[in-house]
Design a protein that fits this description.
Blueprint lengths: L1 H18 L2 H19 L7 H9 L2 H14 L8 H17 L5 H26 L3 H20 L9 H8 L7 H19 L1 H11 L1 H6 L4 H26 L12 H11 L10 H20 L4 H30 L28
């Protein structure tokens, strides 16, 4: 009895923190938004076909949000998320439709190409010391040209029926592409929170100087982050290709804003050193609900983008104000200065660092 009581007492502070966290807020917003859309549609939104469609087109926003989150955790930005995804999707389509490549091999080539491009991007950033913003901007421009070279003005829709079946398959009205996104999120969470390599990513992003002093190569972490980002974008290209009736040069054109919005709204710091896998997934849910409401109520798409942009800016400004407030409290007379984050990889159960000397 004493042991159970002690465990319950130890769990209370964690529950209190969770109830006041961004994740809890997003979870409430998702539940309230889903119920509201269901009621406004007279229950149609709760039915199997509507749920299947909603989840099917949620897979890609989750994956691109996670891809951007990995780059953000080391203080980098990946502006090439949309262009890389569009290029990979068109590459898969062209290989299957124009060259008769089997679906499995075409998908493998597309995902590996995205991963390799992410790796090359990271190596180029480290080797040249050019800001990642500039490098990924250049990569985006190159990939947009390559995507147009692959698809031209046509829509590629003659690819493998096997891949289409994957996009349409939904046991118990749960699409397999959505399950793929959740599995990728779970594996990424296990890697970031439990694996030594993941903890090194967080350490390098939260306090690069301390990480270097403890023997962690920040250059390797930047390369690893961009490689993982490319891999996730490749998987997003797979889910998009399987779900869409065809791919063309417009695929990926509207991925950039959602890729930033999901992790930022989910609670990821732009300064690096933190991840929020569950929060990013929930934020993708929120944006998908907004998009569904736009279609249901025939809203102007520009207003939806405006709303998402305002939410992103408000989240960034609010986070900055909160950090400034905490910093002032820490330096107030009579208060003990805050202890800086640890310089090396932290234990698996510890929370990731959110700041530090950069």
């Amino acid at each position: 009895m004493t042991t159970l009581h002690d465990r319950g007492a130890a769990a209370l502070p964690a529950l209190r923190r969770f109830s006041r966290s961004t994740t809890m807020t997003l979870l409430c917003v998702v539940l309230a938004g889903y119920v509201a859309l269901g009621i406004s549609s007279s229950g149609d939104f709760f039915e199997g076909p509507s749920l299947r469609t909603f989840l099917q087109y949620l897979a890609t926003p989750i994956l691109i949000g996670l891809a951007q989150m990995v780059a953000l955790c080391v203080g980098q930005l990946n502006l090439a998320v949309g262009a890389l995804g569009g290029f990979s999707a068109c590459l898969m389509g062209v290989l299957m439709a124009d060259h008769g490549v089997p679906a499995f091999l075409a998908v493998l080539i597309g995902v590996l190409s995205a991963t390799l491009i992410g790796l090359v991007t990271g190596v180029f950033i480290v080797a040249t010391r050019i800001n990642g913003f500039i490098v990924t901007l250049g990569t985006m421009t190159i990939l947009l040209g390559a995507q147009y070279r692959l698809s031209g003005t046509r829509t590629i829709d003659g690819y493998s029926p096997t891949l289409r079946d994957l996009g349409r398959s939904a046991p118990l009205n749960i699409p397999l592409v959505f399950v793929t996104a959740l599995v990728a999120a779970a594996l990424l969470a296990a890697f970031m929170y439990r694996a030594v390599a993941g903890r090194r990513l967080l350490a390098a992003g939260g306090n690069p100087l301390a990480a270097r002093l403890s023997g962690i190569s920040t250059d390797r972490q930047i390369v690893l982050a961009h490689t993982l980002s490319g891999l996730l974008v490749g998987i997003a290209a797979l889910t998009a290709t399987a779900s869409l009736p065809g791919v063309n040069r417009s695929v990926g054109g509207d991925w950039l804003l959602p890729s930033f919005a999901a992790p930022i709204i989910g609670g990821v710091a732009l300064t690096g050193g933190s991840v929020a896998v569950f929060g990013t997934v929930l934020a993708a849910f929120v944006m998908r609900l907004i998009d569904t409401a736009r279609a249901q109520f025939s809203l102007d798409p520009s207003w939806v983008n405006f709303l998402i942009g305002v939410v992103v800016l408000g989240t960034v400004v609010g986070g900055r104000m909160r950090e400034t407030h905490l910093d002032k409290k820490g330096r107030a007379p009579g208060r003990t200065p805050p202890v800086p984050p640890e310089s090396g990889p932290q234990p698996a159960g510890a929370l990731p660092t959110t700041g530090g000397t950069r």
